[in-house]
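Section handout 9: paired folding examples.
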Amino acid sequence: MREFFYQALVLLLGAFIGIAVPLLPKKGQKWAAGVSSALLVGTALTWIGYEFGYRAGIESWPTPEPETIYQVVFESNRDGNWEIYKGNTDGSGQVNITNHPAGDYYPSVSPDGNKILFVSNREGKSDIYVMNSNGSQVLRLTREGKNWDPIWSPDGRMIAFVSDRSGSAQIFVMNADGTEQRQVTEEYISVVPTWSPDGRKLAFCLASSKGYDIYTINVDGTEKTRITYDPEKTNCSPSWSPNGELIAFDSRRDGETEIYTISLKSGIQVRLTNNQKGNFRPRWSSDGKYIAYYSKRDGSSQIYVMRADGTGQTQVTSRGSNEDPSFFPSILQRSNTR
């Protein structure tokens, strides 16, 4: 359409020079012809520049970046029992993939998208299980104590989780097949682990008598570092960005639980949600462009996604209560609308 605009403008200016200018008084003809000729030349050059740039694939008229549609996994009680569901971030394709009478919670998708970790009480207590992404071939990974909050390492070879087997809730790691389970933290109560992109560190929530703050620690249990400094505001649910620069988390520092990010380099903290109804458990997409979380802004817990800067907050679920989202790694498709 732009080429037709330029063509029409050139023709109009040419007509003005050829027809209107001779009708002007002689004193005005020279000035009008000069101005019109300059406009004609400028418009023609702009048209030519556009044509050549466009044909060469250099589009000088930027179009909005298309939204990306991902697949997420989450827990839902929409059918009367907590089950693991998966669906698309445009709200389509939501299906139950556990279909078990026991409660199923805390899903986490493997880096290759082929496996899903989850927690279930189907054998009498809270334990960690793994299944194929379609819900088949369920395998129990833990047996000692109560176990929850599993999350895959970036390379898919290890799993971090929380267990009370040592007397209080602590962070543990194990191989992806459930072998070599070992304790990482030892202080008070430590929950909600997340891996650094290089797989060398874990971020987690450490409780004190005042509340929770976020810390990082090496996977071997050394070099614990404090990240937030306001335990009374309950800083928790960390999620490490894929580029390693930010940690997203939820906090009650402004009255109600909201989603924030903190820069690990500068310490700058940015608030992403602001609706005073409660927003929880942020999780990054694999490309670092989006964050999934659940919110109670409409009364019940529902899954939302937003861009990494907090814009474009979009509701994904609507039936029942839905919590604890986790992204699949692949992008389903792109939409041409914002």
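Moving on to protein 2 of 2.
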Amino acid sequence: MPRFGLFAATCGAFALLLGGCGGAPSHTALSGRACLARLSAHDISYRPTDIGDPGDPHCAVDTAVKISRIHAALNQSATMSCALADRLDEFEREVVQPLALDELGSRATRIDHLGSYSCRRQNSRTAGRWS
């Protein structure tokens, strides 16, 4: 009988682990006009921008935007895909601002970052692997 209990516990644990694989529904990445409309609806300060040669697959970015403010201002503009800007907005609304209110008693007013999109080869060389 103890072996059956161990087997049942093992099967139950395995089922729980597999159940965790499903997780929450995945966030559907928007692109094009639908994504830009979402950024506008969330009052994000952005402008569409062209990045490099659209024919170069190494530097392709779907619906590139330059962001200067999500809800908090950024220390410098950041170039990224619209989908990433949308996720950054979600992260700020759902994580950063509530945490700032809980820990600091006020909303975050500025987010400092160290850089954004940069299509280049490693160490900015003219040849070699893409960074």
